[in-house]
Specification:
By secondary structure, the chain is an alpha/beta fold. The chain has 15 helices and 8 strands. It is globular.
Length: about 425
Protein backbone atom coordinates (compact mmCIF):
# COMPACT_ATOMS: atom_id res chain seq x y z
CA UNK A 1 0.00 0.00 0.00
CA UNK A 2 1.38 3.39 -1.02
CA UNK A 3 1.80 6.08 1.66
CA UNK A 4 -0.58 9.01 1.60
CA UNK A 5 0.37 12.36 0.09
CA UNK A 6 0.39 13.88 3.56
CA UNK A 7 2.90 11.28 4.66
CA UNK A 8 5.11 11.88 1.65
CA UNK A 9 5.21 15.57 2.49
CA UNK A 10 6.64 14.89 5.94
CA UNK A 11 10.26 16.13 6.09
CA UNK A 12 11.20 12.97 7.97
CA UNK A 13 9.72 10.45 5.53
CA UNK A 14 12.34 11.04 2.83
CA UNK A 15 15.46 10.46 4.94
CA UNK A 16 13.75 7.47 6.55
CA UNK A 17 12.96 5.93 3.18
CA UNK A 18 16.39 6.68 1.74
CA UNK A 19 18.19 5.35 4.79
CA UNK A 20 16.13 2.17 4.86
CA UNK A 21 16.65 1.65 1.12
CA UNK A 22 20.42 2.11 1.31
CA UNK A 23 20.71 -0.20 4.30
CA UNK A 24 18.59 -2.85 2.60
CA UNK A 25 20.49 -2.65 -0.66
CA UNK A 26 23.95 -2.54 0.86
CA UNK A 27 23.40 -5.38 3.33
CA UNK A 28 22.56 -7.84 0.55
CA UNK A 29 25.54 -8.74 -1.74
CA UNK A 30 23.33 -9.23 -4.82
CA UNK A 31 21.53 -5.90 -4.37
CA UNK A 32 24.84 -4.21 -3.59
CA UNK A 33 26.26 -5.40 -6.92
CA UNK A 34 23.17 -4.16 -8.78
CA UNK A 35 23.37 -0.78 -7.08
CA UNK A 36 27.04 -0.36 -7.96
CA UNK A 37 26.41 -1.50 -11.54
CA UNK A 38 23.60 1.03 -11.87
CA UNK A 39 25.76 3.85 -10.56
CA UNK A 40 29.06 3.02 -12.16
CA UNK A 41 28.29 1.01 -15.27
CA UNK A 42 28.85 2.25 -18.84
CA UNK A 43 29.67 5.80 -19.96
CA UNK A 44 27.73 7.40 -17.12
CA UNK A 45 29.68 5.25 -14.72
CA UNK A 46 32.95 6.54 -16.13
CA UNK A 47 31.78 10.11 -15.58
CA UNK A 48 30.68 9.31 -12.03
CA UNK A 49 33.98 7.58 -11.29
CA UNK A 50 35.96 10.53 -12.60
CA UNK A 51 33.89 12.96 -10.56
CA UNK A 52 34.38 10.86 -7.44
CA UNK A 53 38.10 10.69 -8.03
CA UNK A 54 38.35 14.47 -8.34
CA UNK A 55 36.22 15.10 -5.26
CA UNK A 56 37.98 12.49 -3.14
CA UNK A 57 41.49 12.72 -4.53
CA UNK A 58 42.73 14.03 -1.19
CA UNK A 59 41.81 10.66 0.32
CA UNK A 60 41.72 8.13 -2.49
CA UNK A 61 44.46 6.80 -4.74
CA UNK A 62 42.18 5.75 -7.60
CA UNK A 63 38.49 5.81 -8.66
CA UNK A 64 37.80 2.37 -7.20
CA UNK A 65 38.90 3.57 -3.79
CA UNK A 66 36.52 6.47 -4.27
CA UNK A 67 33.68 4.04 -4.97
CA UNK A 68 34.46 2.04 -1.86
CA UNK A 69 34.68 5.18 0.26
CA UNK A 70 31.38 6.46 -1.13
CA UNK A 71 29.69 3.15 -0.41
CA UNK A 72 31.07 3.11 3.11
CA UNK A 73 29.86 6.66 3.67
CA UNK A 74 26.37 5.96 2.33
CA UNK A 75 26.05 2.93 4.56
CA UNK A 76 27.34 4.82 7.61
CA UNK A 77 25.06 7.79 6.90
CA UNK A 78 22.02 5.57 6.49
CA UNK A 79 22.82 3.67 9.66
CA UNK A 80 23.24 6.92 11.59
CA UNK A 81 19.91 8.32 10.35
CA UNK A 82 18.05 5.10 11.16
CA UNK A 83 19.53 5.06 14.67
CA UNK A 84 18.57 8.72 15.05
CA UNK A 85 14.98 7.90 14.15
CA UNK A 86 14.94 4.84 16.39
CA UNK A 87 15.87 7.11 19.30
CA UNK A 88 12.75 9.16 18.64
CA UNK A 89 14.53 11.65 16.38
CA UNK A 90 17.01 12.54 19.09
CA UNK A 91 20.78 12.88 18.62
CA UNK A 92 23.12 10.39 20.22
CA UNK A 93 24.00 12.97 22.89
CA UNK A 94 21.77 15.78 24.22
CA UNK A 95 23.98 18.66 23.04
CA UNK A 96 24.62 17.19 19.59
CA UNK A 97 22.64 17.55 16.37
CA UNK A 98 22.01 15.13 13.52
CA UNK A 99 24.14 17.35 11.28
CA UNK A 100 27.07 17.02 13.64
CA UNK A 101 26.57 13.26 13.92
CA UNK A 102 26.66 12.89 10.14
CA UNK A 103 29.77 15.05 9.87
CA UNK A 104 31.48 12.97 12.55
CA UNK A 105 30.63 9.85 10.57
CA UNK A 106 31.99 11.41 7.37
CA UNK A 107 35.33 12.33 8.92
CA UNK A 108 35.59 9.14 10.98
CA UNK A 109 35.06 6.85 7.99
CA UNK A 110 37.56 8.81 5.90
CA UNK A 111 40.15 8.77 8.67
CA UNK A 112 39.69 5.07 9.36
CA UNK A 113 40.25 4.21 5.71
CA UNK A 114 42.86 6.76 4.65
CA UNK A 115 43.81 8.94 7.62
CA UNK A 116 47.42 7.77 7.79
CA UNK A 117 47.85 8.52 4.10
CA UNK A 118 46.43 12.03 4.34
CA UNK A 119 48.52 13.00 7.35
CA UNK A 120 51.71 11.25 6.29
CA UNK A 121 51.92 11.78 2.51
CA UNK A 122 52.53 15.32 1.25
CA UNK A 123 50.84 14.70 -2.11
CA UNK A 124 47.53 13.90 -0.39
CA UNK A 125 47.90 16.47 2.39
CA UNK A 126 48.50 19.22 -0.18
CA UNK A 127 45.25 18.35 -1.96
CA UNK A 128 43.26 18.49 1.27
CA UNK A 129 44.82 21.86 2.07
CA UNK A 130 43.87 23.14 -1.38
CA UNK A 131 40.31 21.94 -0.92
CA UNK A 132 40.11 23.51 2.55
CA UNK A 133 41.33 26.83 1.11
CA UNK A 134 38.66 26.80 -1.58
CA UNK A 135 35.88 25.85 0.79
CA UNK A 136 37.10 28.22 3.50
CA UNK A 137 37.21 31.15 1.08
CA UNK A 138 33.67 30.49 -0.16
CA UNK A 139 32.27 29.97 3.33
CA UNK A 140 34.33 32.76 4.84
CA UNK A 141 33.10 35.39 2.39
CA UNK A 142 29.53 34.72 3.40
CA UNK A 143 30.44 34.92 7.09
CA UNK A 144 32.28 38.22 6.58
CA UNK A 145 29.33 39.77 4.75
CA UNK A 146 27.02 38.76 7.56
CA UNK A 147 29.34 39.99 10.32
CA UNK A 148 30.45 43.22 8.66
CA UNK A 149 34.07 42.09 8.45
CA UNK A 150 36.65 41.70 5.73
CA UNK A 151 39.56 39.31 5.33
CA UNK A 152 42.94 40.42 4.02
CA UNK A 153 45.64 37.97 2.89
CA UNK A 154 49.19 38.89 3.88
CA UNK A 155 52.42 37.05 3.11
CA UNK A 156 55.03 36.57 5.82
CA UNK A 157 57.83 34.01 5.97
CA UNK A 158 56.82 32.64 2.56
CA UNK A 159 53.30 31.75 3.71
CA UNK A 160 49.84 33.25 3.35
CA UNK A 161 48.22 34.45 6.56
CA UNK A 162 44.81 36.08 6.96
CA UNK A 163 43.78 39.27 8.73
CA UNK A 164 40.15 39.51 9.80
CA UNK A 165 39.18 43.15 10.29
CA UNK A 166 36.07 45.26 10.61
CA UNK A 167 34.67 47.04 7.57
CA UNK A 168 34.52 50.12 9.78
CA UNK A 169 37.90 51.90 9.85
CA UNK A 170 39.65 52.01 13.19
CA UNK A 171 38.97 55.26 15.00
CA UNK A 172 41.74 57.42 16.49
CA UNK A 173 42.59 56.81 20.14
CA UNK A 174 41.30 53.25 20.10
CA UNK A 175 43.40 50.41 21.46
CA UNK A 176 44.03 47.44 19.18
CA UNK A 177 43.48 43.93 20.47
CA UNK A 178 44.80 41.19 18.17
CA UNK A 179 44.10 37.48 18.57
CA UNK A 180 46.76 35.45 16.76
CA UNK A 181 45.12 32.10 15.98
CA UNK A 182 46.98 28.95 14.87
CA UNK A 183 44.73 26.43 13.15
CA UNK A 184 44.66 22.69 13.71
CA UNK A 185 44.79 19.81 11.25
CA UNK A 186 47.44 17.39 12.48
CA UNK A 187 50.22 19.81 11.46
CA UNK A 188 49.52 18.62 7.91
CA UNK A 189 46.15 19.69 6.56
CA UNK A 190 43.73 22.63 6.74
CA UNK A 191 44.56 26.28 6.16
CA UNK A 192 43.92 29.71 7.69
CA UNK A 193 41.18 30.35 5.12
CA UNK A 194 39.11 27.49 6.51
CA UNK A 195 38.97 29.37 9.81
CA UNK A 196 37.64 32.67 8.47
CA UNK A 197 34.10 31.65 9.46
CA UNK A 198 35.18 30.67 12.97
CA UNK A 199 37.25 33.83 13.40
CA UNK A 200 34.17 35.92 12.63
CA UNK A 201 32.35 34.18 15.47
CA UNK A 202 35.30 34.58 17.84
CA UNK A 203 35.68 38.27 17.00
CA UNK A 204 31.96 38.87 17.49
CA UNK A 205 31.94 37.19 20.90
CA UNK A 206 35.01 39.14 22.06
CA UNK A 207 33.31 42.39 21.02
CA UNK A 208 30.13 41.39 22.87
CA UNK A 209 32.10 40.48 25.98
CA UNK A 210 33.91 43.81 25.88
CA UNK A 211 30.54 45.56 25.87
CA UNK A 212 29.20 43.32 28.63
CA UNK A 213 32.20 43.60 30.94
CA UNK A 214 33.28 47.18 30.22
CA UNK A 215 30.12 48.86 28.95
CA UNK A 216 29.26 49.85 25.36
CA UNK A 217 31.14 53.15 25.31
CA UNK A 218 34.35 51.69 26.70
CA UNK A 219 34.08 48.70 24.37
CA UNK A 220 34.03 51.05 21.39
CA UNK A 221 37.52 52.17 22.40
CA UNK A 222 38.91 48.67 21.77
CA UNK A 223 39.40 47.55 18.17
CA UNK A 224 39.40 43.74 17.84
CA UNK A 225 41.21 41.97 15.00
CA UNK A 226 41.98 38.31 14.32
CA UNK A 227 45.23 37.20 12.70
CA UNK A 228 44.98 33.66 11.28
CA UNK A 229 48.55 32.42 11.33
CA UNK A 230 49.97 29.86 8.94
CA UNK A 231 52.92 27.51 9.33
CA UNK A 232 54.87 25.06 7.18
CA UNK A 233 53.17 21.69 7.12
CA UNK A 234 54.26 18.13 7.72
CA UNK A 235 55.37 15.77 6.32
CA UNK A 236 57.47 18.08 4.12
CA UNK A 237 58.56 20.08 7.17
CA UNK A 238 58.87 18.63 10.65
CA UNK A 239 59.55 19.93 14.15
CA UNK A 240 60.91 22.48 15.09
CA UNK A 241 59.91 24.37 11.91
CA UNK A 242 56.29 24.88 12.97
CA UNK A 243 56.84 26.52 16.39
CA UNK A 244 59.58 28.64 14.82
CA UNK A 245 57.02 29.83 12.27
CA UNK A 246 54.57 30.86 14.99
CA UNK A 247 57.28 32.77 16.86
CA UNK A 248 58.20 34.59 13.64
CA UNK A 249 54.67 35.74 12.87
CA UNK A 250 54.07 36.71 16.50
CA UNK A 251 57.18 38.88 16.55
CA UNK A 252 56.18 40.28 13.15
CA UNK A 253 53.00 41.56 14.77
CA UNK A 254 54.97 43.18 17.57
CA UNK A 255 57.60 44.86 15.42
CA UNK A 256 55.80 45.58 12.14
CA UNK A 257 52.34 46.30 13.51
CA UNK A 258 53.78 48.24 16.46
CA UNK A 259 51.86 46.19 18.98
CA UNK A 260 52.69 45.81 22.63
CA UNK A 261 52.66 42.18 23.87
CA UNK A 262 49.75 43.17 26.14
CA UNK A 263 47.71 43.79 22.98
CA UNK A 264 48.16 40.26 21.63
CA UNK A 265 46.38 37.05 22.59
CA UNK A 266 47.71 33.72 21.31
CA UNK A 267 45.13 31.02 20.57
CA UNK A 268 44.78 27.80 18.63
CA UNK A 269 43.10 24.42 18.41
CA UNK A 270 44.49 20.89 18.31
CA UNK A 271 47.92 20.96 16.62
CA UNK A 272 47.74 24.75 16.48
CA UNK A 273 47.19 24.89 20.24
CA UNK A 274 50.28 22.74 20.68
CA UNK A 275 52.24 25.21 18.57
CA UNK A 276 51.01 28.10 20.71
CA UNK A 277 52.36 26.36 23.81
CA UNK A 278 55.69 25.68 22.09
CA UNK A 279 55.93 29.30 20.92
CA UNK A 280 55.30 30.66 24.42
CA UNK A 281 57.93 28.36 25.91
CA UNK A 282 60.41 29.62 23.32
CA UNK A 283 59.60 33.25 24.01
CA UNK A 284 59.95 32.67 27.75
CA UNK A 285 63.40 31.24 27.12
CA UNK A 286 64.63 33.80 24.57
CA UNK A 287 62.55 36.96 25.08
CA UNK A 288 60.49 36.76 28.28
CA UNK A 289 59.61 40.45 27.96
CA UNK A 290 57.74 39.60 24.75
CA UNK A 291 55.32 37.08 26.23
CA UNK A 292 51.72 37.81 25.14
CA UNK A 293 48.82 38.95 27.26
CA UNK A 294 47.35 35.45 27.54
CA UNK A 295 46.62 32.28 25.58
CA UNK A 296 43.57 30.15 24.79
CA UNK A 297 44.06 26.48 23.93
CA UNK A 298 41.23 24.44 22.42
CA UNK A 299 41.61 20.64 22.52
CA UNK A 300 45.42 20.95 22.46
CA UNK A 301 47.83 18.35 21.06
CA UNK A 302 50.62 18.74 23.61
CA UNK A 303 51.82 15.25 24.54
CA UNK A 304 54.15 13.02 22.49
CA UNK A 305 53.68 10.02 24.77
CA UNK A 306 51.44 8.40 22.16
CA UNK A 307 49.07 6.63 24.55
CA UNK A 308 45.83 8.25 23.43
CA UNK A 309 42.50 6.61 24.22
CA UNK A 310 40.47 6.86 21.01
CA UNK A 311 36.83 7.72 21.58
CA UNK A 312 34.18 6.15 19.30
CA UNK A 313 32.40 9.51 19.30
CA UNK A 314 35.45 11.44 18.08
CA UNK A 315 36.80 12.01 14.57
CA UNK A 316 40.35 11.09 15.63
CA UNK A 317 41.46 7.47 15.39
CA UNK A 318 44.53 5.89 16.98
CA UNK A 319 46.05 5.51 13.51
CA UNK A 320 45.67 9.25 12.91
CA UNK A 321 47.33 10.11 16.19
CA UNK A 322 50.22 7.78 15.39
CA UNK A 323 50.61 9.32 11.94
CA UNK A 324 50.72 12.81 13.44
CA UNK A 325 53.45 11.80 15.89
CA UNK A 326 55.56 10.20 13.19
CA UNK A 327 55.26 13.10 10.75
CA UNK A 328 55.60 15.96 13.22
CA UNK A 329 58.49 14.63 15.30
CA UNK A 330 60.44 11.85 13.52
CA UNK A 331 62.35 11.18 16.77
CA UNK A 332 59.25 11.00 18.94
CA UNK A 333 60.38 7.62 20.30
CA UNK A 334 63.27 9.36 22.09
CA UNK A 335 61.85 11.39 24.98
CA UNK A 336 65.13 13.25 25.44
CA UNK A 337 64.50 14.94 22.07
CA UNK A 338 60.89 15.97 22.59
CA UNK A 339 61.72 19.50 23.67
CA UNK A 340 58.82 21.96 23.68
CA UNK A 341 56.90 19.78 21.19
CA UNK A 342 55.59 17.95 24.26
CA UNK A 343 54.78 20.85 26.56
CA UNK A 344 53.14 18.48 29.05
CA UNK A 345 56.69 17.54 30.02
CA UNK A 346 58.01 21.13 30.23
CA UNK A 347 58.29 23.61 33.08
CA UNK A 348 55.10 25.69 32.86
CA UNK A 349 56.00 28.42 35.33
CA UNK A 350 56.21 32.11 34.40
CA UNK A 351 53.88 31.88 31.42
CA UNK A 352 50.91 34.19 30.74
CA UNK A 353 47.41 33.16 31.89
CA UNK A 354 46.09 30.23 29.86
CA UNK A 355 42.51 29.15 29.14
CA UNK A 356 42.45 25.40 28.56
CA UNK A 357 39.29 24.10 26.88
CA UNK A 358 38.63 20.44 26.15
CA UNK A 359 35.89 17.96 25.29
CA UNK A 360 35.34 14.89 27.43
CA UNK A 361 34.82 12.72 24.33
CA UNK A 362 37.93 13.96 22.56
CA UNK A 363 40.45 11.23 21.74
CA UNK A 364 43.21 13.53 22.99
CA UNK A 365 41.26 14.77 26.01
CA UNK A 366 44.00 13.42 28.27
CA UNK A 367 46.47 15.86 26.70
CA UNK A 368 44.52 18.74 28.23
CA UNK A 369 44.07 16.93 31.54
CA UNK A 370 47.80 16.25 31.83
CA UNK A 371 48.73 19.78 30.82
CA UNK A 372 46.49 21.24 33.51
CA UNK A 373 47.82 18.74 36.07
CA UNK A 374 51.39 19.71 35.16
CA UNK A 375 50.59 23.41 35.54
CA UNK A 376 49.17 22.78 39.01
CA UNK A 377 52.19 20.65 39.94
CA UNK A 378 54.43 23.54 38.88
CA UNK A 379 52.54 25.89 41.18
CA UNK A 380 50.77 27.78 38.40
CA UNK A 381 47.62 29.54 39.59
CA UNK A 382 46.59 31.74 36.66
CA UNK A 383 45.31 29.00 34.33
CA UNK A 384 41.63 28.15 33.79
CA UNK A 385 40.28 24.72 32.83
CA UNK A 386 37.02 24.42 30.88
CA UNK A 387 35.65 20.89 30.38
CA UNK A 388 32.68 20.09 28.12
CA UNK A 389 31.80 16.50 28.98
CA UNK A 390 29.78 15.53 25.89
CA UNK A 391 31.91 17.28 23.27
CA UNK A 392 34.49 15.76 20.91
CA UNK A 393 37.60 17.12 19.19
CA UNK A 394 37.73 20.85 18.24
CA UNK A 395 33.98 21.27 18.79
CA UNK A 396 34.08 25.10 19.12
CA UNK A 397 35.14 25.63 15.50
CA UNK A 398 31.80 24.41 14.13
CA UNK A 399 29.08 26.96 13.26
CA UNK A 400 26.15 27.31 15.65
CA UNK A 401 23.60 26.02 13.13
CA UNK A 402 25.70 22.85 12.97
CA UNK A 403 26.50 22.49 16.67
CA UNK A 404 24.81 25.09 18.91
CA UNK A 405 27.06 24.24 21.85
CA UNK A 406 30.03 25.62 19.91
CA UNK A 407 28.84 29.13 20.72
CA UNK A 408 28.81 28.30 24.42
CA UNK A 409 32.48 27.36 24.17
CA UNK A 410 33.49 30.40 22.11
CA UNK A 411 31.70 32.69 24.54
CA UNK A 412 33.76 31.26 27.40
CA UNK A 413 36.99 31.82 25.46
CA UNK A 414 35.94 35.40 24.73
CA UNK A 415 35.03 36.05 28.37
CA UNK A 416 38.46 34.85 29.47
CA UNK A 417 40.22 37.07 26.93
CA UNK A 418 38.32 40.17 28.03
CA UNK A 419 39.03 39.44 31.70
CA UNK A 420 42.73 39.56 30.84
CA UNK A 421 42.34 42.68 28.72
CA UNK A 422 40.56 44.78 31.31
CA UNK A 423 43.56 45.42 33.64
CA UNK A 424 45.77 46.40 30.69
CA UNK A 425 43.37 49.15 29.68
CA UNK A 426 43.94 50.89 33.00
CA UNK A 427 47.73 50.56 32.93
CA UNK A 428 47.85 51.85 29.35
CA UNK A 429 46.14 55.06 30.37
CA UNK A 430 42.76 54.03 28.97
CA UNK A 431 40.18 53.83 31.74
CA UNK A 432 36.81 52.17 31.01
CA UNK A 433 35.34 53.95 34.03
CA UNK A 434 36.47 57.33 32.72
CA UNK A 435 34.92 56.64 29.33
CA UNK A 436 31.67 55.48 30.89
CA UNK A 437 31.57 58.63 32.97
Amino acid sequence: MLPSVGRLQSPLSLPWALSAAVLLAWSDPHRRFKLLALLFGGVSGAVVLKGLHIAMRGLCNNPLEGVYLLGSLLYAFAKTVVQYMARGFKPILPQWTLRFELFRVFIRVGMELHGERVLGDESYAAIVREQSEWFGTFWGRRACRKAGKRYEPVHINGLEHIWLRSLTPRKPNTRRLVVLYAHGGGFAIMSPRLYIHFSNALCSFVEKELARQLGPEAANKVHVEIFLANYHKVPKHSYPTQPQDIVKVYEHLLYHENLDPSQVVLAGDSAGAGLIMSAMLRERRDNPQLLPLCAALVCPFVDLTGDERPSPNCILTQECCNAVLKAYHPEHDDQSKWGDASSVHCDLRNLPPVFLQTGGLDSIHQHAVRLMDKAKADGVTNWEYDLHETMAHVFPIFPAWFLPHADVAIEKVAAFIVRQVQPTLKTSGFSPAAVAA
